[in-house]
């Protein structure tokens, strides 16, 4: 298992390396090594390519781990921040900041967005308490509806304040605008992802349900609160920097769960590596398909995502009733 | 000792547990029997702090379960409810190992691993240890849950309908194992049982409930009479003595 994980990390590192050298500007490894690279190529590498690649890795692993946490805590295979209203709520928070306190530093913006994201998740939990859930697919359905309602309010307000353009920029994962100085908050997401790994056993136990968790002496509500707060903060930091790539938090955790199960102490590293690799790969596809133009990674995932999601619903819906 | 004092619980207008006062002594195997809806499961869950009581208190070895830190109780008392739906995809060994969580908080020691392997062997799960829960039959899954509860190594063991889904062989083996745990290790085992004959054959004490109240408590010989049983269950019983055990039939 350890060997396989090392190989997966290696493969991801290769993807990351490729990501550094693909793009409109010519940056070549041999020139860099020989010291003959032009100053412009060096600048592109340091100011754009490296930030972009790092952002892809941090956001990809963070969102995938978020998906797993949400799925364990809500005990539903089909939720992730993008099917639970969390992303939309975070965006709504961003809009509020933009209207009422545009001068806030980025970290403060992120925290406000996180607070809204947490509130959005909480509203979903309240709704779910009132609804008889006959099938597990109903949970993401209600979540998507909640997200749509928040989104409608968001667009209406943005339109009134003439902020539609800014809002649209956060709606789709797009890494082409990532530059040095504008993605560093994703390191916060990374730190939180590590925190999730440290507390992994708590989330696995919580995933067994409230009775099991209480029997094992875990404070179920506190574990839930901790997990959902981590999810809200990671989601918010991704939303404020690059916008969220849909489906990532569904595909990767479900694949890992199908293959390796849900003992998070063992599987979270796989989820993180898988999320980074998938996002890197989709971003590369988006960059290579119509050069010199780019397709945002969100769009690429938007094509792969629904197909994978459908596969998961058909495959898992049959068993996990 | 488990002391239940004036415990009551209502769901809406239905009073499921109605002012129950009961003492379960340390050591020995006690069975709770009674018709559906008698409040046995609710009482067991209240005793194990899974459900809060509306009024009254429960204490285990003098610790009030509603107020004692949950992780402290988890090293003293283990409960398994009936109808467990686990969506998390764990393999049997990992699930059982989480029974050690109250002791090791997810960092299992060599000693923890010994407990896990022993619990697996007790429940005849050696061959299934690497299978995922969703790949097991209902009875196999039930055995995995019981193994996890055993692995917790607590002085008090509360099991709600543990024989659910178990075939005859595994049912009898489980009862023998629990009997041994009570006699040889001095554990306090409390079971909710459906089958009065299992209760009669293995218990030190039987407690019968009906409509949220305790109506009878005593040794199997005291409780297992035709009049008592028809009073509790509301149908006709014949009681026979076979091989020194009180066995009820209810097919006439």
Automatic annotation (TrEMBL), chain A:
Keywords from the named record: Cell membrane, Membrane, Transmembrane, Transmembrane helix, Transport
Top-level taxon of origin: Bacteria
GO molecular function terms noted in the UniProt entry: transmembrane transporter activity
Pfam families, per the entry: FecCD (PF01032)
Cellular localisation: Cell membrane
Cellular component, GO, one term: plasma membrane
Gene Ontology process terms (BP): siderophore-iron import into cell
Topology versus the membrane: Multi-pass membrane protein
Transmembrane segments: 54-74, 95-125, 137-159, 185-203, 223-256, 268-289, 295-314
Similarity comment: Belongs to the binding-protein-dependent transport system permease family. FecCD subfamily.
Protein name (database record): Iron ABC transporter permease
Native source species: Azorhizobium oxalatiphilum
Automatic annotation (TrEMBL), chain B:
Presence of keyword Transport: yes
Cellular component GO terms, alphabetical: plasma membrane
Alphabetized GO MF terms: ATP binding; ATP hydrolysis activity
GO biological process: iron ion transport
Subcellular location: Cell membrane
Top-rank taxon, per record: Bacteria
Topology versus the membrane: Peripheral membrane protein
PANTHER family from the UniProt entry: IRON(3+)-HYDROXAMATE IMPORT ATP-BINDING PROTEIN FHUC, PETROBACTIN IMPORT ATP-BINDING PROTEIN YCLP
Protein name per the record: ABC transporter permease
Encoding gene (name): cbrD
């Amino acid at each position: 298992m350890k060997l396989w994980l090392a190989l997966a990390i290696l493969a991801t590192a290769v993807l990351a390396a490729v990501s550094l050298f693909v793009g409109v500007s010519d940056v070549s490894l041999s020139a860099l090594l020989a010291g003959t690279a032009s100053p412009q190529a060096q600048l592109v590498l340091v100011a754009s390519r490296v930030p972009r690649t790092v952002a892809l890795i941090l956001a990809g692993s963070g969102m995938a781990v978020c998906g797993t946490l949400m799925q364990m805590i809500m005990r539903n295979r089909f939720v992730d921040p993008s099917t639970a209203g969390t992303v939309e709520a975070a965006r709504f928070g961003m809009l509020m900041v933009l209207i009422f306190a545009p001068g806030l530093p980025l970290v403060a913006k992120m925290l406000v967005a996180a607070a809204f994201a947490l509130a959005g998740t909480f509203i979903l939990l309240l709704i779910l308490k009132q609804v008889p859930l006959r099938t597990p697919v109903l949970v993401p359905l209600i979540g998507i509806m909640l997200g749509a309602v928040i989104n409608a309010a968001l667009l209406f307000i943005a339109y009134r304040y003439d902020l539609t353009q800014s809002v649209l920029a956060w709606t789709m994962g797009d890494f082409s605008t990532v530059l040095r100085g504008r993605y560093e908050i994703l390191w916060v997401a990374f730190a939180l992802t590590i925190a999730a790994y440290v507390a992994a056993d708590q989330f696995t136990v919580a995933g067994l349900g409230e009775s099991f968790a209480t029997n094992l002496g875990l404070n179920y509500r506190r574990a839930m609160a901790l997990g959902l707060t981590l999810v809200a903060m990671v989601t918010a930091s991704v939303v404020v920097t690059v916008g969220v790539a849909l489906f990532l938090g569904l595909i990767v955790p479900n694949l890992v769960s199908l293959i390796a199960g849900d003992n998070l102490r063992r599987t979270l590293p796989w989820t993180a590596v898988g999320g980074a690799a998938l996002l890197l790969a989709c971003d590369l596809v988006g960059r290579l398909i119509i050069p010199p133009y780019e397709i945002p990674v969100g769009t690429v995932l938007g094509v792969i995502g629904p197909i994978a999601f459908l596969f998961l619903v058909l495959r898992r819906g049959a068993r996990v009733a | 000792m488990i002391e239940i004092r004036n415990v009551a619980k209502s769901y809406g207008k239905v009073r499921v547990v109605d002012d129950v006062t009961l003492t379960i002594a340390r050591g020995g195997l006690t069975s709770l029997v009674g018709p559906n809806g008698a409040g046995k499961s609710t009482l067991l869950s209240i005793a194990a702090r899974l459900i809060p009581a509306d009024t009254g208190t429960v204490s285990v070895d003098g610790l009030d379960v509603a107020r004692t830190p949950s992780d402290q109780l988890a090293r003293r008392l283990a409960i398994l409810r009936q109808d467990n739906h686990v969506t998390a995809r764990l393999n049997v060994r990992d699930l059982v190992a989480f029974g050690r969580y109250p002791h090791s908080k997810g960092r299992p020691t060599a000693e923890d691993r010994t407990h896990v392997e022993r619990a697996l062997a007790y429940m005849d799960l050696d061959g299934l240890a690497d299978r995922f829960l969703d790949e097991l039959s209902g009875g196999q899954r039930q055995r995995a849950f019981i193994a996890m509860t055993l692995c917790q190594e607590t002085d008090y063991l509360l099991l709600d309908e543990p024989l659910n889904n178990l075939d005859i062989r595994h049912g009898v083996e489980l009862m023998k194992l629990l009997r041994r745990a009570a006699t040889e290790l001095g554990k306090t085992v409390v079971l909710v049982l459906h089958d009065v004959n299992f209760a009669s054959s293995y218990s030190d004490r039987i407690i019968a409930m009906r409509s949220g109240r305790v109506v009878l408590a005593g040794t199997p010989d005291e409780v297992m009479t035709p009049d008592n049983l028809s009073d509790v269950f509301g149908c006709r019983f014949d009681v026979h003595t076979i091989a020194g055990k009180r066995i009820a039939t209810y097919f006439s």
